[in-house]
């Protein structure tokens, strides 16, 4: 189950790898009570996350209803999710009538959020990231909730610090990050008011072959464009590993809310990663700017102590991405803007 290919040749193989459950996750689903609903399933992470849950249930021999809610980018996208054995509901989660109409699932995974373009539409950013969570926390107050947040709620810290831990106070930079802290506070309020068990997932950052910080750097290197060193250090985690941690966090939900950092174990250097891609692409890397003493960094030792280490090492991910780009694999064209230091996305 834990053998991984030397390279990934197509999206079908990639999707299988992103959705592959391990034995511990299968065992968890064998004892987990209740069905699951994924709110905001249509984004980058939702489909593979829900498929991993479905496959874990299948391997465990349990029959759970798994449903995803989203506006969906197309009918084809929605149908592809349904073909995985996942039910779908098409609708706008900001529609209060839709929220009130949703069946009460015992396990809720909340993925909805707005980041890109958030600085151009701040009222919508706050509505999606703070108002919507309040609606969800109210409607599903008898459920168990796992809600995606972000490491962006932490302040910039030094590399020597080892990254922010769950015990560190948030200090969000910019309105996007502030609205994400607002999301956390709304789920915390619901948890305290109704005794709802909640896990808040501070993810920083999830990567795969079609998008993410590593793809952003790789494309700059491949296209012989300068790599910005303003945010000189970062964390990433393979999306398949992130999916595993998120689903395991269903059992860890508690009241008051439990905060869980999810990222990779290494603090990576933008310069070093770019130079590694340069070797794969046989090009000289160009840089702009200089590394600052601080960066947006998280520490996931708490998650590892409970759920184990990520399975895919960074050097394997870099090789996969380099091979993917060299072979003209599809890219989502959704840059992360990880180099931003002022919180304006």
Main sheet properties: 7 strands, parallel
The fraction of residues in strands falls at 5-15%
Instruction: Indicate the CATH topology of one domain.
Output: Rossmann fold
Widest β-sheet, arrangement of strands: 3-2-1-4-5-7-12
Order of SSEs, N→C? HHEHEHEHEHEEHEEHEEEHEEHEEHH
Tell me, what's the shape? globular
Poorly predicted spans: none
Query: Which CATH first-tier class of one domain would you pick?
Result: Alpha Beta
Write down how many β-strands occur, each being a DSSP E stretch of 2 or more residues.
Answer: 15
CATH architecture of one domain: 3-Layer(aba) Sandwich
Residue share in helices?
A: 40-55%
Counted by DSSP, the helix tally is 12
Distance between the termini: 38 Å
Mind telling me the C-alpha Rg? 19 Å
CATH homologous superfamily of one domain, by name? NAD(P)-binding Rossmann-like Domain
Classify the secondary structure makeup into a structural class: alpha/beta
What integer is the average pLDDT?
A: 96
Would you kindly provide a brief summary of this structure?
This protein has helices spanning 11-18, 23-31, 46-60, 75-82, 96-101, 122-139, 174-194, 213-222, 239-252, 270-281, 301-307, 314-326, and strands at 36-39, 66-70, 87-90, 107-110, 144-150, 157-158, 198-203, 206-207, 227-228, 233-234, 237-238, 258-262, 268-269, 287-288, 294-295. It has 345 residues and is of the alpha/beta class. The protein has a domain at 11-207 and 238-264 and 297-311: Rossmann fold (3-Layer(aba) Sandwich), CATH 3.40.50.
